[in-house]
Amino acid sequence: MKKPVLEAKNIRKSFGDLEVLKSVSLTARAHNVISIIGSSGSGKSTFLRCLNCLELPDEGSLAFAGEEIEFSRRRGKIVKADARQLLALRAQTAMVFQSFNLWSFMTAAENIMLAPQKVLGISRPEARERAEHLLQRVGLYDKRNSYPAQLSGGQSQRVAIARALAMNPKLMLFDEPTSALDPQLVGEVLALMRELAEEGRTMILVTHEMAFAREVSDKVIFLYQGVIEEQGTAKSLFDTPKSARCRAFLRREM
Amino acid sequence: MDFALMWESLPALLHACIMTMELTFISLFVGLILAVPLGLAAARRRGAAAFMAEIYMFVFRGTPLLVQLFLIYGGLAQFDYIRDSFLWPYLRQAFMCALIGFSLNTAAYTANIFKGAILAVPAGELEAARACGFKLWQQYCYIVWPQAFRMALPAYGNEVLIMLKSTSLASVITVMELTGTAKNLYAETYAPYEIFITAAVLYWVMSFILSLLLRFLERRFNKNYRKRKTGRRSLLP
Ligand SMILES: Nc1ncnc2c1ncn2[C@@H]1O[C@H](COP(=O)(O)OP(=O)(O)OP(=O)(O)O)[C@@H](O)[C@H]1O
Ligand SMILES: [Mg+2]
After folding, report:
1. Do B225 and A149 make contact, defined as CB atoms within 8 angstroms?
2. How many angstroms separate the Cα of A218 from the Cα of each of A19, A95, B106?
3. How does residue A147 score in pLDDT terms, banded at 50, 70 and 90?
4. β-sheet bridge partners, residue A227
5. Are B199 and B161 in contact (CB under 8 A)?
6. How many degrees, rounded to 5, is the angle at CA A186 between CA A183 and CA A188?
7. Are the C-beta atoms of A133 and A109 separated by less than 8 Å?
8. In terms of Cα–Cα distance, which of A104, A115, A202, A244 is closest to A167?
9. What pLDDT is attached to residue B231?
10. Is the CB of residue A58 less than 8 Å from the CB of residue A22?
11. Residues of B in contact with A174 (CB under 8 A)
C-alpha cells in the first residue's frame, strides 16, 4: 500500500451544544478519489473543512504526507495547530468552494497568479505563464482579463479550479462545487473534475451529484448525523447498500 | 453688487486659499495615517484594541469639531508639562492647533469608513485566502486591504469634501485661512455679499477640483470590478 497523503483519525467537532462530527476517520492515498455524501446538515462540509483546518477539530488527529500535525490542547480540546505545519498543509491542499470565493477585485488571471507568487514564491512571469496555461486548460483563456462579476457561475467555478491547480496541490478538496450552478452549467464543471480524476489527482469531494460520485470515486463515504454510517467502493455502496438509512438516502437522491 | 470690489478682494482671498489647502491636505494626510491602524483595530470588533479605537471614534464623532478646536487651542496651555516642553513654540500657534484638531477629527471619521469597508469584505474571499496558505498579514495586505480601499473610496471622497469646508472653523481660533481672511475684509469694507460670495465661489472651485480628482481615482480603481455583463443601469427611472 502507498503512504497516505492524508490521514484523519477520530475527528470530533461541536458547535456549542451541537455535536456535528462524532469521531470521523478517513484515509486518502495518492490518486484516490473519495466522495462524501449525506443529507443536509450531516456534517459533510464541516468534516471537509477540518481536513485543512479551516475549522479546527475539537479532538482527533490529522497527518499530512506522513507528518502528524501538532495540535495544542487545552483541557483535552484542540485550540491551535502548529503555525508552520498549518501553512504547509494549506499550501499543498487546495480547496474549491460551493460559492467559488474568487477575489472579486482581481481578474481571472490575477486570481490564479496571486497564491503561487505569495505562498510558493514563484516569480511573476512564471506565475503568469502558469495562469495562462491553466486558463487554456479550463477553456477560459479569452476570459483572462475578466473580473469575477463578469463570469457565469460555471466559468467562475472553472477559474476557481484553475486557481486551485496553480498551487500544484497534493490533495484537492471540493465542497459541493456544482451546487450553486444552474443545471445547464453543471456539466462543464463536472467534465473538468472528471479529467482531474482521470489524471490521477488525489481528491476528496462533497457532492450531491450521485451519478458523478459513482462514476469517478474509488471510495464513497455516507455521513449520517456526524457518523460514518456506511463506506465502501462506489459499486458496493451504490449497488448494495447495507444500511437502511443509506438505502433511503440513495432512493431519495437518485 | 460691486464687481470692482470683488475683483480687488480676489488676490487676498486667493492667497488665503493656499492656507485652506494646506490645512485640508495636511490633516487629511495625517488623519489617513492614523485611520489605518484605528480602522483595522475597530474591525476586529473584540479585544482591548478594538475597544480603544471605538472609544476614540465615539469621542471625536460625538462632539463638535469647533469644541475640539477650542479645547486644543485653549486647553493645551493649562498643562505645565506641555508649556515647558520643547513642542510648546509649535503648539501655541493657532495653525498647529487647527491642524491637530482637524487631523484627529478626520482620523475618527476615516477610521469608521475603513472599519465598515473591512467588515464588508466577503468572508468567503478571506476563507479562500486562508485555504491557499496565506499568512494573516498576507490576507490583510493582498485581500482585505485592496478591497476595503476600493469600497471605502466613495465615502472617503465625501469626507475629503467635508474636511475642506470644515477648515473654515479654523477662522474662529484666529487662523487666517479663506474664511478668516474674508471676515477681515468684510470688517474693512462692510460689503458682506461681495466678499463672502467671492469666498464661497473659491470654496466651490476647490471642491470641484477635488471631486474631479476623487472621481478619477474611483474610475481608476473601481474600473471593471463588480460590473455585471449587462452593464451599469440605474435602478431609478
Ligand atoms: N460555524 C458554525 N457555527 C455553528 N453551527 C454550524 C457552523 N457550521 C456548521 N454548523 C452546523 O453544523 C451542522 C452541519 O453542518 P455542515 O455544513 O457540515 O452540513 P453539510 O452536511 O455540509 O450540509 P449541506 O449539505 O447543507 O451543505 C449543521 O447543523 C450546521 O447548522
Ligand atoms: Mg455543506
Report:
1. yes
2. 29, 20, 61
3. very high
4. A224
5. no
6. 135
7. no
8. A115
9. 47
10. no
11. none
CA B133 to chain centre: 37
Q: Tell which atom from ligand 1 comes closest to the C-alpha of A49.
A: 18
Ligand 1 and A44: CB distance under 6 A: yes
Nearest ligand to the CA of A44 is 1
Q: Which of A85-94, A96-105, A216-225, B82-91 has the lowest mean pLDDT?
A: B82-91
Which amino acid, one-letter code, is at A179? S
DSSP H helices, B190-223, are 192-221
Could you tell me which residue, B86 or A206, shows the higher pLDDT? A206
CB of A15 within 6 A of ligand 1: the answer is: yes
Name every residue whose Cβ is closer than 8 Å to that of residue B219 and which is 6 or more positions away in sequence: none
Cell numbers representing residue A207 in the block: 457532492
Check if the beta carbon of residue A211 is closer than 8 Å to that of residue A234: no
3-state secondary structure B28-92: HHHHHHHHHHHHHHHHHCCHHHHHHHHHHHHHHHHCCHHHHHHHHHHHHHHCHHHHHCCCHHHHC
Contacts of A92 in chain B (CB under 8 A): 133
A40 lines ligand 1 (CB under 6 A): yes
Helix, strand, or coil here: A140? coil
Per-residue cell: B227: 460590473
Cell of A168: 500544484
Give whichever of A184-188, A202-206, B174-178 has the largest mean pLDDT.
A202-206
Q: How far is CA B60 from CA B63, B99, B112, in A?
A: 6, 15, 11
C-alpha of residue A45 to centroid of ligand 1, in Å: 7
Instruction: Tell me which residue of B199, B200, B169 sits closest to B94, measured CA to CA.
Output: B169
**Which of A64, A99, A103, A113 to substitute to test the interface with B, most B CBs within 10 Å?**
A103
Count of other CB atoms within 10 angstroms of residue A45 = 19
Domain covering B3-224: architecture: Orthogonal Bundle (1.10)
**pLDDT level of residue A215 (50, 70, 90 thresholds):** very high
Q: Residue A149: list chain B partners with CB under 8 A.
A: 224-228
- List chain B residues with pLDDT less than 70: 223-237
Mutate to test the interface with A, among B132, B144, B149, B221 (most CBs of A within 10 A): B132
CB A40 within 8 A of CB A17: no
CB count in 10 Å sphere of residue B118: 21
**Beta-bridge partners for A95:** A173
